[in-house]
Amino acid sequence: MFGIGGGELVFILFIVLMLFGSDKVPEIARTMGKAMAQLKNATNDIKSEIQKGAEANGLDSKALTDITGNINAQISDAKSNLLGDSTNLLGDTATEIDKVKEDIDSISGPVKRQR
User: Fold this and answer.
1) Which of 8, 31, 43, 112 has the fewest Cβ atoms within 10 Å of its own Cβ atom?
2) What are the contacts of 17-20 at 24+ separation with CB within 8 A?
3) 4 contacts 12 by C-beta, under 8 angstroms
4) Cα separations (Å) of 73 from 77, 78, 83, 87, 97?
5) Are the C-beta atoms of residues 44 and 51 closer than 8 Å to each other?
6) Which residues contact 54 (CB under 8 A, 6 or more apart)?
7) Where do the domains of the chain lie?
8) What whole-number distance in Å separates Cα of residue 14 and Cα of residue 7?
Protein backbone atom coordinates (compact mmCIF):
# COMPACT_ATOMS: atom_id res chain seq x y z
CA MET A 1 0.00 0.00 0.00
CA PHE A 2 1.96 3.02 -1.29
CA GLY A 3 5.23 1.43 -0.13
CA ILE A 4 4.30 1.86 3.54
CA GLY A 5 4.99 -1.04 5.87
CA GLY A 6 2.97 -2.12 8.88
CA GLY A 7 5.20 -0.39 11.43
CA GLU A 8 5.14 2.85 9.49
CA LEU A 9 1.36 2.70 9.23
CA VAL A 10 1.02 2.19 12.99
CA PHE A 11 3.34 5.14 13.59
CA ILE A 12 1.28 7.36 11.26
CA LEU A 13 -1.95 6.31 13.01
CA PHE A 14 -0.35 7.08 16.37
CA ILE A 15 0.65 10.55 15.20
CA VAL A 16 -2.88 11.18 13.84
CA LEU A 17 -4.38 10.12 17.17
CA MET A 18 -2.02 12.43 19.04
CA LEU A 19 -2.75 15.40 16.77
CA PHE A 20 -6.52 15.12 16.41
CA GLY A 21 -7.65 12.98 19.32
CA SER A 22 -9.87 9.93 19.29
CA ASP A 23 -13.01 12.06 18.81
CA LYS A 24 -12.02 13.50 15.43
CA VAL A 25 -10.43 10.42 13.80
CA PRO A 26 -13.76 8.83 12.70
CA GLU A 27 -14.91 12.13 11.22
CA ILE A 28 -11.63 12.51 9.34
CA ALA A 29 -11.91 8.93 8.05
CA ARG A 30 -15.48 9.53 6.83
CA THR A 31 -14.47 12.77 5.13
CA MET A 32 -11.52 11.09 3.40
CA GLY A 33 -13.77 8.20 2.32
CA LYS A 34 -16.27 10.59 0.79
CA ALA A 35 -13.48 12.49 -0.97
CA MET A 36 -12.08 9.26 -2.43
CA ALA A 37 -15.56 8.24 -3.63
CA GLN A 38 -16.05 11.64 -5.29
CA LEU A 39 -12.65 11.36 -6.95
CA LYS A 40 -13.49 7.87 -8.24
CA ASN A 41 -16.83 9.07 -9.61
CA ALA A 42 -15.20 12.06 -11.30
CA THR A 43 -12.60 9.85 -13.03
CA ASN A 44 -15.33 7.44 -14.15
CA ASP A 45 -17.30 10.36 -15.58
CA ILE A 46 -14.24 11.60 -17.47
CA LYS A 47 -13.59 8.11 -18.84
CA SER A 48 -17.17 7.77 -20.02
CA GLU A 49 -17.05 11.20 -21.69
CA ILE A 50 -13.87 10.26 -23.52
CA GLN A 51 -15.45 6.96 -24.59
CA LYS A 52 -18.59 8.73 -25.84
CA GLY A 53 -16.50 11.26 -27.76
CA ALA A 54 -14.46 8.50 -29.37
CA GLU A 55 -17.60 6.58 -30.35
CA ALA A 56 -19.15 9.76 -31.77
CA ASN A 57 -16.08 10.18 -33.99
CA GLY A 58 -16.35 6.60 -35.23
CA LEU A 59 -13.80 5.02 -32.92
CA ASP A 60 -14.95 2.14 -30.80
CA SER A 61 -12.98 0.50 -27.99
CA LYS A 62 -11.69 -2.24 -30.32
CA ALA A 63 -10.35 0.33 -32.77
CA LEU A 64 -8.68 2.26 -29.94
CA THR A 65 -7.12 -0.97 -28.64
CA ASP A 66 -5.85 -1.80 -32.14
CA ILE A 67 -4.39 1.69 -32.57
CA THR A 68 -2.61 1.62 -29.21
CA GLY A 69 -1.37 -1.91 -29.91
CA ASN A 70 0.05 -0.81 -33.27
CA ILE A 71 1.69 2.23 -31.70
CA ASN A 72 3.25 0.11 -28.96
CA ALA A 73 4.51 -2.39 -31.55
CA GLN A 74 6.09 0.40 -33.60
CA ILE A 75 7.74 1.84 -30.49
CA SER A 76 9.18 -1.52 -29.48
CA ASP A 77 10.46 -2.10 -33.05
CA ALA A 78 12.12 1.31 -33.05
CA LYS A 79 13.73 0.61 -29.66
CA SER A 80 15.07 -2.75 -30.79
CA ASN A 81 16.41 -1.24 -34.02
CA LEU A 82 18.11 1.59 -32.16
CA LEU A 83 19.61 -0.68 -29.53
CA GLY A 84 20.73 -3.24 -32.08
CA ASP A 85 22.31 -0.60 -34.33
CA SER A 86 23.98 1.21 -31.43
CA THR A 87 26.02 -1.85 -30.49
CA ASN A 88 27.13 -2.29 -34.09
CA LEU A 89 27.80 1.42 -34.35
CA LEU A 90 29.93 1.39 -31.22
CA GLY A 91 31.83 -1.67 -32.42
CA ASP A 92 32.50 -0.06 -35.82
CA THR A 93 33.58 3.18 -34.17
CA ALA A 94 36.03 1.37 -31.89
CA THR A 95 37.49 -0.44 -34.89
CA GLU A 96 37.95 2.81 -36.78
CA ILE A 97 39.58 4.46 -33.76
CA ASP A 98 42.05 1.57 -33.47
CA LYS A 99 42.91 1.91 -37.18
CA VAL A 100 43.54 5.65 -36.81
CA LYS A 101 45.75 5.03 -33.75
CA GLU A 102 47.81 2.51 -35.73
CA ASP A 103 48.14 4.95 -38.63
CA ILE A 104 49.33 7.72 -36.32
CA ASP A 105 51.82 5.39 -34.64
CA SER A 106 53.18 4.22 -37.99
CA ILE A 107 53.57 7.79 -39.26
CA SER A 108 55.09 9.35 -36.17
CA GLY A 109 56.89 6.39 -34.71
CA PRO A 110 58.04 6.63 -31.17
CA VAL A 111 58.21 10.30 -30.32
CA LYS A 112 60.50 11.41 -27.54
CA ARG A 113 60.47 14.78 -25.98
CA GLN A 114 63.54 16.86 -26.40
CA ARG A 115 64.77 18.87 -23.43
Assistant:
1) 112
2) none
3) yes
4) 6, 9, 15, 22, 36
5) no
6) 60, 61, 64
7) 9-59, 60-102
8) 11
CA atoms within 13 Å, Cβ hemisphere of 112: 2
Spatial contact of 10 and 2, defined as CB atoms under 8 Å apart: no
- The 10s digit of each residue's pLDDT in 66-107 is 777 888 888 888 777 766 655 555 566 777 777 887 777 777
pLDDT digits (tens, 9 = 90+) for 32-56: 899 999 999 999 999 888 888 877 8
At residue 108, does pLDDT exceed 80?
Answer: no
Give the C-alpha separation, 3 to 1, whole Å.
5
